[in-house]
Amino acid sequence: MNAASKLLSGIAGAFIILSILAAASFAGETSGATYCFLKPQRLPDSRARIDIVQELPVIHLYGTPEEMGRQYGTLLKGSINDVVNLVKLLLPPESLDSYVAAAKALEKNLPEGTVLQLKAVAGAAGVPYDIILAINMTAKYNCSGLTVLGDRAKDGKMMFCRNLDYFAYGLGHCANIIIVFHPEAGKRLVSLAFVGFIGAYTGINEDGVAFGNMLVFNSAPPLYNSRGVTIHLAFREAAFKAVDTESFCDLIAKMEHVIPMNAMVADGKKACVLEIGAEKMSRRFPERNYIAATNYFLNPGKRSQKVDCERYGYLDALGSDAGAALGVEDMEKALKGSAMGKLNLQAVVFVPADMKMYLSMNRMPPAADGPYREFDIRELLKD
After folding, report:
1. What phi and psi, each to the nearest 5 degrees, are found at residue 144?
2. What span, in angstroms and rounded, lies between the C-alpha atoms of 191 and 179?
3. Are 164 and 255 contained in the same domain?
4. Cα(288)–Cα(282) distance, rounded to whole angstroms?
């Protein structure tokens, strides 16, 4: 098994068992019930805290990377230990060693602040740093997305919807969190994440730049870059600096990435899909005021083969339909129609111009079935 395979699959077994345990804990609940596994908490003499907003856990972190890491590890200590203990319990020692070694080989590519933050998380939570590092090098998420704008969007307001699908179905019952970063240097950021992860697979910053990733299965070689940074950590670094879609894409383009990904970015005015190869990158832009993406490159120069993806076809048809413009409820239906069943852990619609987010997670999957909760991003970003 090569380094990429070790890194991408190492934690899967542990999360699958975690999923089964979560599903068992949900027995007897209705399909729309929300599972909140954390309680409100504030650190002494600090603004860092856990709020419960509409039944979902919101973790506020402040300061330098190291300070935010200590706060994260302290506030989520119990949950982080649960995840780490399951990883150590369920992975054979040789598999765990290989998984950690693959992650350690990528550590040198991380910004210094990110390493300091990961070490602070591990120290505050009282868990091995190497396992926290390895968890944060996991990049294997499927997902799908659609952005509409202009005459395809109700009231002309751009909307970006995104599913997060992962094979450890049920994980959403016990590990989804909303992180609000208030960095000492950089833009504030709302990230939809999981316990133990410090990055942003899905998020929106204070300037309304929203984004999400999709793993790619039809990339032309190379398929792995040992000089790369995991996508959720790359996204976070870009979101701390980006003022719009273009600057976010430019920042991502300057980085190297571990494995092929699609990334959808939307800021209320412009949208883009980045087709991120392990070494090269291209950009797709909306045609006829919409753009869709799933787990395949469309650029002939970047793909190994053309793949007819049913989910992409569904989203593309919605976007291109000459009928009525799409509203938030239509985008929620788009998520339901393109979700990967029991793999669907998060479903979200962003309206960047209004700084609104409509989110479903921490419920029996598929999350896209709802209920969706409306969040005011400006309120989340307040101190």
Report:
1. -160, 160
2. 5
3. yes
4. 20
183 in Cβ contact with 240 (< 8 Å): yes
Name the token pair of 303: 């793909």
| Three-state DSSP class for residue 240 | coil
Question: From CA 181, how far away is CA 199, in angstroms rounded?
Answer: 10
Q: Where does the chain have alpha helices with state H?
A: 3-9, 12-25, 65-75, 77-90, 93-107, 112-125, 129-135, 172-175, 231-239, 245-253, 310-320, 328-338, 377-381
SS3 content of the chain, % helix, strand, coil (to 5): 40, 25, 35
Q: With respect to residue 33, please indicate whether it lies within any of the assigned structural domains.
A: no
- Chunked in runs of 10, what are the mean pLDDT values of the chain (383 residues)? 51 45 41 72 96 96 98 96 86 90 96 97 97 86 93 96 78 78 98 95 98 96 94 97 98 96 97 94 96 97 95 96 92 97 93 98 89 97 91
Please report the pLDDT score of residue 139 as a whole number: 63
d(CA 87, CA 238): 30
Residue 125 lies in a domain: yes
> Are residues 91 and 6 in contact, defined by beta-carbon separation less than 8 angstroms?
no
The helix (run of H) or strand (run of E) holding residue 200 is none
Q: Is residue 188 part of a domain?
A: no
**CA–CA gap between residue 304 and residue 275 (Å, rounded):** 13
- First-residue to last-residue Cα distance in the chain: 46
